[in-house]
Amino acid sequence: MSTEAQQVGRRVFIHTLGCQMNVYDSGKIHAQLQRDGYQSTADPREADLILVNTCSIRERAVDKMHSALGEYRRMKREGQPVVIGIAGCVAQERGEELLARYPDVDLVFGPDGVPHVQRLVAEASTGSRVLDTDFLDLENYPFVADVDPSTHGVSAFVTIQKGCDNKCTFCIVPATRGAEASRPHAEIVAEVRALVDRGVQEITLIGQNVNSYGLKVPGELTFAQLLYAVAEVPGVRRIRYTTSHPRDMGDDVVQAYRDLPALASHLHLPVQSGSNRVLRRMKRFYTRERFLEIVGKLREARPGMLLTTDVIVGFPGETDEDFEATMTLLEEADFVGSFSFKYSPRPGTPALKLEERDPVRPEVASARLTRFQERQRERSLALHRSLEGTEVDDVLVEGPSRHDEGVVCGRTSRHVMVNFPGDIGLVGQIVPVRITRGFTHSCRGERL
Ligand code: 5AD
Ligand code: SF4
Description:
CATH superfamily of the domain at 3-132: Response regulator
Strand content: 15-25%
CATH topology of the domain at 3-132: Rossmann fold
Bound molecules: 5'-deoxyadenosine, iron/sulfur cluster
Helix content: 25-40%
């Protein structure tokens, strides 16, 4: 059999951990491997190739990788002829170590390996073990154009940049994803068009620090200008973006909220802490006051806008008083939701030194996290309950509810999740709904 013939009918199973960047990268991996005849499968037992796309943001994500690898390694030892690869952020950070620890693993590559995954997989399939953790040149960075073949929904991600030039002291991402490169805006717009052609209506622009898009490339659009360019693509009904760094949130982006109805009335704006002392130690380069000023401007430009955030508790040196400042910021900034985490020491990050001198006891950090999350849940529930009896006219229906037969699920521009009885034919439509019940994470409603 020729190599080509052997490759036809091969199956790849991709296990994705971590953030939207990884979800997106997995889609790009799938797109490229499809050209070599790989079909994706949802069952690792029937795969010829298993890739674990890993995350190293917190130790818990790394633990998940180990348990996944344990399972796949067992399949291989039990006789399944499968090539096993580790991709993503842990692969980048601990490549050698992973090869040594997992003799059954054939391939290890970091996020910058995604554009040449075809070659890497071909090499690993010949029986040689492959490690690729080189960073690519930032100039002419080869962003992959192929659209993820499994894209079918109403909503899709589009990457606008890779890497991160910030130096938040707790964060491992600059080490795993390297320096920042902006994707040329023409490529971004082309991908948006291709997605709209497939029926996508909501575009989420993604990057580690989207607000700094284009700043280092002479002649490139700014992030705000990019928003206008994407809004001009016919068929784009809603635009979201993530992740934003408050430091780079300029007035031009605020203005876009006045000008662009398609820009969603929700922003995820990670604050990390409400204490200026902690923000300084995190090297975030804004104060609580500046953060609140940005929030005020955004809400003035777009009344009713909802904000969500990320918070770290138990950062080295965080006192009770610092933590109380985070609790009060939750109220003052009026966050409707948040992701909150206990500080997790990451290899090679500057915060490790702070932690040596000034650790927060784990039980103290846990107690703070519990308190923060309880208050956040109360607040989310209160917001959703306050919507009971109101009518919303902008539920973009995304698909069937995961739990109930005959119920569909969508989101408003403000990112409120609404479930209501309805036919699957509503998917892709924007419909008016009366909210009948509010829960912590979503609302129930009935179609008007
Ligand atoms: N420990 C805990 N949380 C972290 N995050 C990033 N690094 C760490 C860490 N070392 C959180 C931040 C970030 C989110 C994606 O993960 O809140 O915004
Ligand atoms: Fe995890 Fe960060 Fe890598 Fe995303 S970029 S996969 S969150 S470590």
